[in-house]
Structure formats: structure tokens, C-alpha cells
Amino acid sequence: MQKILIVEDETRIAIFIEKGLQRNGFNTAIANNGEQALQMLTTTKFDLLLLDINLPVKDGLTVISELREHNLLIPTIIVSANHEILKQIPQSGNKAVPYISKPFRFTELLDSVRAHLSPTN
Q1: Whose CA is closest to 60, among 41, 42, 35, 93?
Q2: Cis ω on the peptide bond leading into residue 103 (within 30° of 0)?
Q3: How far apart are CA 53 and CA 86, in angstroms?
Q4: Dist CA 47 CA 114 (whole Å)
Q5: What is the pLDDT of residues 9-50, one digit of tens each?
Q6: Which of 10, 40, 68, 79 has the most C-beta neighbours closer than 10 Å?
Q7: pTM
Q8: Strand, coil or helix: what is 25?
């Protein structure tokens, strides 16, 4: 079963995403700040990271930077209402980091998750 880390400080949104993903056969965990996410990512293998940008303790941009510094490459989808942040997100090689805009429909998120976890990626 594929494991997804949801990094979201708004409890209601985190639970909404988690329940939907679990109903669709995914194993999930939630981190409510960037520091907790980094700790979890260094101790547990995850197949995908759903990352908010506006987080307490360490923001999402810091999480991305620190993951790259430590060569912890994990497929990441940004889930944020902050559209301006797209300009600041470091690209991964030639590929842009995928972005889901809040508010979103769960089916849109699920489609993106499935696309990033498909064997062809």
C-alpha cells in the first residue's frame, strides 16, 4: 500500500484529505508543521508528499529546500491557497513542482495523486 504524508496545519483540511485518500486505498500520515514533516520524512519512507506552504515552525519552502539539501527526493504536490508562492518554489530539474489550489475538489487532488504514483512517473 502506498504511503502519503499530508503536511497541513488546518486540522479540518488534513482530516478531509486523509479520509478521502484512505477510502481510496492509500496509507496516510499527517504532520501539522514543517519541522514535524521533516522528522517524519527522515524516519519513515513515504511515496508522496502533499505539502501546504504556509505552515508553522518551518514553512513548505523550507521543507522542500531541506529535503533537497539532504538528498531526500520524494514526489511532492503543493496544496496551497497562496498562488504567489509558485514563483518562489524551486524547480526540480526541468520539472515544475505540481500545485493544487485551495479550495479544491477532492477528485482533482485524487487524480493528481494517482498520476504521481503511477508506475510511469
Answers
A1: 35
A2: yes
A3: 10
A4: 11
A5: 999 999 999 999 999 999 999 999 999 999 999 999 999 999
A6: 79
A7: 0.90
A8: coil
Higher pLDDT: 29 or 94? It is 29
Buried/exposed code over 29-62 (b: 16+ C-beta within 10 A; e: otherwise): ebbbbbbbbbebbeeeebbbbbbbbebeebbbbb
* Dist CA 93 CA 83 (whole Å): 21
- Domains along the chain? 3-117 (3.40.50.2300)
For 46-91, the pLDDT digits (tens) are 999 999 999 999 999 999 999 989 888 899 999 988 767 666 665 5
Partners of 48 in beta bridges: 4
The count of other CB atoms within 10 Å of the CB of residue 5 is 21
Q: Tell me how far apart the alpha carbons of residues 53 and 58 are, in angstroms, rounded to a whole number.
A: 9
Q: What is the rounded distance in angstroms from the CA atom of residue 95 to the CA atom of residue 92?
A: 5
- In Å, how far are 15, 22, 117 from 26, measured between CA atoms? 14, 5, 11
